[in-house]
């Protein structure tokens, strides 16, 4: 198959590096990753994806996939890159409480539609992430302690596998592939659509409280004690933020360290108010935006930036959070640290996130994880080594309390080596994933990711 044949077979654009529109087609959220594929295919439908995969296989080229570009992590040089932003089908069945979502749909679009009928999905903190890529990596969101990972509630996937076939995969039709896709991210094919269950959540008690940086120690030590007793209906995290003096940052938060408590409570608002009261007693906040809010406003809980940024990210999973661990965290990310981090977050896990789902999947490292650490630094490529080094220093300081494992959606460019990527899955699951990879992608066509190599 030639480029001419590929163009004839594809409805959307097929672009080479010298073609007009090539750079624009490759726009991404994380600006530290520059995509330079040999060919880019702007898929408008599943048939376009099939044609692109068949072309890649015929020319022995790897396949890369670009949605919003939050999770871009591996160089796409020499690949056939498929952009999914034109796959925007979104259907919600109000009576059945289910949704079918195509690969280009972002959470902001889904939330807007679902909230109109009083339903919710298990979205993450950022409204600009695509639903499909987020869910394939597990999907850790603000309702997770009550309902688990987003991947736990997927009922079907439409995927183009390495042989170019479009498959509708369910627990009944292909149980091994169904298990692997939900938690294995892009290792087993190009998922063009997913179907999943929804929840009757019209509103919740939640939001964020911003405390001045000098209260960081009090906030984090209280959070450590508080998390031990709150019900599963309560999900929360604390992010130490040092935001730049830019127009999109509210003036009171610019260029200063703040401690941002983020919570959602799926219960009686009066009880939510009681549970949050100990934090309000710590001192005067800069902003207190916790209260009853509609599901349509859920993105305001974390207030993630929506514009593209150059980001370096790192993470770890903790099995415990004693006072000594909080002190180490504060030493490197608190008010007395010369930290380059934009965000250093401790997120409470447990609850439904710690239990296996009704239909097992590949999302790993559940049972021993009580807290998730997520670090973000922003800067241009010359700063990459220093920024990542500082993040690693903080992660190393927390090693005595770490599980030694990782959460897949919080793994980025520095985590792409196979031995590091393997930490995203349990030791029991990883060999099974490699064997399923051998059956469905023996040539490792889908390797522009945190790769699971096939067994030999």
Automatic annotation (TrEMBL):
Domain FAD-binding PCMH-type per the UniProt entry, residue ranges: 33-201
Domain of life: Bacteria
Keyword Oxidoreductase in record: yes
Keyword terms of this UniProt record: FAD, Flavoprotein, Oxidoreductase
Cofactor: FAD
Family: Belongs to the oxygen-dependent FAD-linked oxidoreductase family.
Protein name: FAD-linked oxidase
